Each structure stands twice: as structure tokens, then as C-alpha cells.
């Protein structure tokens, strides 16, 4: 059943209370940090942390990448770090209130007990040299490690608080300019502050595509623009450019689909996959792109790989470089270096080895150096935020987001099998004005069913990309053949998932939902659009993917509400995977038109025009096919459903469909 008005009101009220509670907690924590550092009026603070005897090969790497990204807090004033920019080899004996010097000019340092065996002094960054000088008498008994010069150089001219000026960005295409939310404008301002070389590391669903296009368009004089992206997202970017930058002529946008495609040097925007980048590097470098967007930049994380080498090479000729990634370091800080090298030819540490020693807990083993650790992570965070990166979590900007967002994702036509004789014949049958009701049902059923087969590979490619990015999501489909292909695809990636279709009993559904809700390791819920669109609560995911469309928008919105319901405190992102040249060309506008009618009658508050891309093919047949579908009565559609159930009832044993993989 769809959510009632009272349920929607209650859900919005709970969401508002959660936002207020979260804001109050963040404010209290910020006040605590300010009070702790109020005695330090300086360009920044540094924490001096005594530790055990210094031994590089025995460094313990307890810091994790998840804490590095999920526990960052917004800056509340002076910069500080609790890593070990200056460390001594052992604790001062018996005197926790020990002060390094009795000289009246000694730096002011506040004391903090970290644990029973560890404490630290916090002092102004400007007093770093004074602190070292005051500790000179201890050099006979202790080993000191000062802050590296590159850290001091980065922060020596930094103001106590980073105030990014709001520059005039009205030159951006008006449609895009008006669509930017306040936090999205902040990233554009920061990108301009960094001279157009930035890593935008926002959470998924915060509009990194819009931010990148806005910043790139601000530097229109530095085009042509190259957009590098996973293969499955090439045409989603193509659609985004057409929608948000209407001032760019359509014939000035090219998508490179194969190693044989001609690369036109005269166009404004070129879209290419990372795989083709390595194969066509010389041809692309010959264009001399001055602005480059690297979508999902963590795909260049493997140092010395062909992809990372090619990315670094082509970025060297660009004046503006924009990296986009919600997870720039998926498991280890070492994966950041190749991305930083794209932004800055010679990153702040100089060599990777120096970076590894400082931030990766580098250890020398019998097989060479191991850089798989993580050290000085808070210091690295400060440097990234100062020189390279802006990152906002959904929880930090939730008040600016709608409770539900829709996107239409155009699948790669090269992976969609739409140019077959069967698909051509079915498309013609759809426009037959003289067909009887039974023939209409058959035409609809056949075309819709064949579309599922045609989309399968492209859908699976997209799902693999989501899995590689660490996402947890719901995936809806209608046909058993596509549900089976999606399940097989997830199994090949060795990921846990649940599957619920019409064969799963009510008791079994409850167990599967609990597994998905409570276990982080269960990454995907593969669900039937018609059999799992009601009665399920799956709010542990805030991403919903529709591998197929459905002619009844009410069914789609009910399916969306498996994640967007009472208990969900995050903004839900809904993605519809659409293939051009298939039945999707006609189902999408049909869904839009039906919802518009319901909305005008006050029967639905949903509106699929909210999706940030709206148009598919410009075929002249679309209106007649919409009329064709709208002529089908509810009995006709019910007959289609019955035929679907009969055709798929023996596809797979129930025991396999109702377990967690």
C-alpha cells in the first residue's frame, strides 16, 4: 500500500527531529573544541604527542580508511592535529605536568591526557620552532621528530579560519546556475579558489556531476573539455551535458565508444571511458584538452598501472582538473597518491616513498617496502582540505536536500542489444493502429519482455560499478530473466545479497529483510517490482535502482518507498536505468504523463519530472505509442501481468530464490 498522508507527515516530522538532534550534537561538539583551543590565537595548532621508542618498522597502523572519511568533522577554527608531527621516544618520567623549558619565552602548550600511558601538548603552529629549541636539552635522552617542512610550508600562511570568497559565477549556464544548492556553490567557489584543480569527494547523491559541470563551465575559456568516466556512465554524462549546459550545441558533444571512433578536435566536449583512455592516449593528447573531469577518480588508484599513468599524463597538459569520487581511498591512504598526482604533478611530499613513510606507515620487509598502513591521518585530512579536497557527508547537508531525489541514467547503447530484427519488428507492431486488444497486449508484452533481455548486459555493468564503489542498494526488476542475470552478476563479484520475488513466503521475506537491515555485508536486495513493492522495510539503504520501468507509476512509487519510508533519516536517491531504442523510450514518458494526471487530480504528490534528465529518443512514434498504451484498460494490463507470471513461474527453484547469498 502507498504511504498515507499521515504516514508521510510523521516521516517528515521524524526526519526534522533527527536533523535538529544531529545539529545540536554537532554544535555541542564544536563548542567543546573551541573551548579546548581558545588559548591558542594562531595560524593553527599542532599536537605534540609522546609515544613509545621510535621504531619505523614497528609502527602500528590502527587508523582505518572508514574512520578517515566517516568521522571527519567540519572545521571549527584553528587547524590542529592529534597525529605525531613532533614526537619523543618515551614518556617523561613520573611527571605528567612536565614543561619542556623554564625560559620565559617558551611557547605556550596546553596539556591533555590521552590515556593512562599517553598524553600530549598542544601548541601553536607558529611556535613550532620555539618548541623544538626548548626541547634541545632533552636530545641526549629523547628522540625528536619535528614536523616535515612541507607541512609547515602548507600552513604557514594559512588564516585561522578558511573563508572562501564568493566570486561571481553568473557566467555559468543559467539553467545550471539556478539549480545549484548552497553547499554545491561552496564547492564551485572553493574550486575557483584552487585555480580549478580540485577533488570533490562528496557522498553519493550530493550532485557531484552538477558541481563539476558548473566549475568546468566557469572556465569555458579553457575548453575543450574532456570527461573521463567508467564505461557504464558515458551516456549519463552525455545526457547531463545536454540537460544542464544547453548553451553547448549538440554537434559539439562527442562520445568515444570504440578504439576506431574518430576524435574530432573541433568539438567542445569529449566523453571517453578510462579503458579507451589507455588505448587512445596519443590521439586524446593531440587534442590538447585544457579542462578535464575525472569521474570516479578512485579508478586511477593503482599506482604505476596503465590507467593511472595515462591519467597523470593527460592531466599534465590541462590547466583545470576536476576529480570526482565519493570514496577516493577505498581501503588505504596509498591509493590517494596517484589521484593527488593528477591534481599536482609533484605532490606535496615529492615522492611516493616520502608520502608512504609519513601517511602509510611504510615498512621495509624482505620483499621490499609495504605501504598498506595508515598513519598521521588527521594531518593528512587537514592537508587535503587545505590544498586539494572538499568533502561533505549527507548528514552535514541533509537540511538542503529533498527527502527523495530521482535520476534517469542512460545506459551505454554499445551494451544494449536494441538493433536486432526482433526489436525492430516489435517496435513496428507497437504502432499498428488496427491491432485488436489481444494483439495490443501481445505487442506490449513481447516488446517489454525483449527489452529486459536487451538491457541485461548494460544493467549488469552498471551494478558492477556500484558494487566496486562500496554502495548498499535496492535493485528492482520485473522479468525473471533480468532478475536472474542481476543475481548472477552479484555472485560473480562475490558479494552477499538477498532476493525476493513472488515465490518467497511472508515468513521468509521477514528473515531476508532483517538480514539486509542488520548486516552490512549484505550489499544488495534484488527485488521484483510487482512482488516486492509493498510490505517491506529496507531503510538501511538510501539508494534505489530500477533496472526496468513499469507502465504503472503507482507501482514504481510504492517500490521506491521500501527505502523512503518511516525510519529513513537520509535523503533517498532513486535511479532509473533507461536504454534508448527500446520500450523504455515510450514507457518513461507514459509514466510521466500518468503521474501528471494523478497529480492534477490531487491523487499523487509524486512527479517524475523531478528526475534531472527527462528526454529519451526524439522518435516521432512516441506520441502514438503513448496513446496506444493508454488505450489499454486495467483488464488488459492485468492480462499482461498474468501472462508474465505464467511465463516465469518455472524459471528457478523456490529454494534458490529465497535465500541470502
Describe this structure in words.
Pfam families: Helicase_C, SNF2-rel_dom. It comes from Daphnia sinensis. Residues 458-614 form the Helicase C-terminal domain. Residues 32-73 have a biased composition (Polar residues). Residues 74-87 have a biased composition (Low complexity). This protein is an alpha/beta fold and 661 residues long. The protein folds into three domains: 5-155, no CATH class; 174-345, Rossmann fold (3-Layer(aba) Sandwich), CATH 3.40.50; 402-657, P-loop containing nucleotide triphosphate hydrolases (Rossmann fold, 3-Layer(aba) Sandwich). 40% of the residues lie in helices and 13% in strands. The chain contains 24 helices and 18 strands. Strands 6-7-5-8-9-4-12 form a seven-stranded parallel β-sheet, with helices on both faces. A six-stranded parallel β-sheet has the order 13-18-17-14-16-15, sandwiched between helices. Helix 21 crosses helix 22 (622-630).
Low-confidence stretches: 33-104, 612-626, 647-659
Helix tally equals 24
Q: Strands across the major sheet, in which order?
A: 6-7-5-8-9-4-12
Taking all Cα atoms into account, the compactness measure Rg is 28 Å
Q: Give a count of the beta strands, DSSP E runs of length 2 or more.
A: 18
User: CATH topology of the largest domain, anyone?
Assistant: Rossmann fold
User: Roughly what fraction of the amino acids lie in strands?
Assistant: 5-15%
CATH architecture of the largest domain: 3-Layer(aba) Sandwich
